[in-house]
Amino acid sequence: SAAELSQAGLSEDTKVWQLIDGVGGRGLQIGGAQMSEKHCNFMINTGTATAADLEALGEEIRSRVLEKHGITLRWEIRRIGEP
User: Fold this and answer.
1) Percent of the chain topping pLDDT 90
2) I need a surface site. Which of 32, 72, 75, 83 has the fewest CB within 10 A?
3) Structure letter (DSSP) for residue 42
4) Is residue 49's pLDDT more than 90?
């Protein structure tokens, strides 16, 4: 939210991809899951990603952004199946 961005000392027009890029997320890979090099707010399956790989990658990004900026990113997906 704008309030979270302001509290973190960031411009209110800061985009999520900028936060991800700023914590080394662009191209980051865990197993077969990778943050896109081109659009670093998208996760891609390099061909061998498991659901656990995707989950771990997303949580690593969320953790890094929280640690650096105090901002909790929210997942924009719907999880289905067994954990």
Assistant:
1) 71
2) 83
3) -
4) yes
